[in-house]
Amino acid sequence: MSPGFQFIGCLRYNLEGTNLKDKSYQVQILLIICTQCVFYVWLMAPIAEYNGSLILYRRIIRPKFILYQPGLDRFLSNARETGKVIF
């Protein structure tokens, strides 16, 4: 089970287990829960072009990886050479 859904379960338990007089706090918590659920569904949606995981990968993860790729390649080649010397 993902940490996000565990967090949702804890919040629901806390909301049900206490008598909160402040309705605005309950509304904020429920809004957070709904937003999180919509985000997870968007990430897992089987839509070809608008799949959330593909959008996050193409716009955030891949550009950062390409930016840091030369440094990662140097680090791995140094680690490989160090491993050859040690073993």
Q: Which properties best describe this structure?
A:
2 domains, 87 residues, mainly alpha, 0% strand
Description:
By secondary structure, the chain is mostly helical. The protein folds into two domains: 44 residues; 41 residues, no CATH class. The chain is built from three helices and no strands. Helix 1 runs antiparallel to helix 2. The radius of gyration is 22 Å and the shape is elongated. The protein starts with a helix and ends with a helix.
How many separate helices?
3
Which ranges are low-confidence, i.e. pLDDT below 50, for 5 or more consecutive residues? none
Elements, N to C (H/E)? HHH
Mean pLDDT: 80
What radius of gyration results from the CA coordinates?
22 Å
Beta-strand segment tally = 0
Structural class: mainly alpha
Helix content: over 70%
Terminal residue distance: 40 Å
Overall geometric form: elongated
Counted up, domains total 2
Largest sheet: none
Instruction: Report the sheet-strand fraction.
Output: under 5%
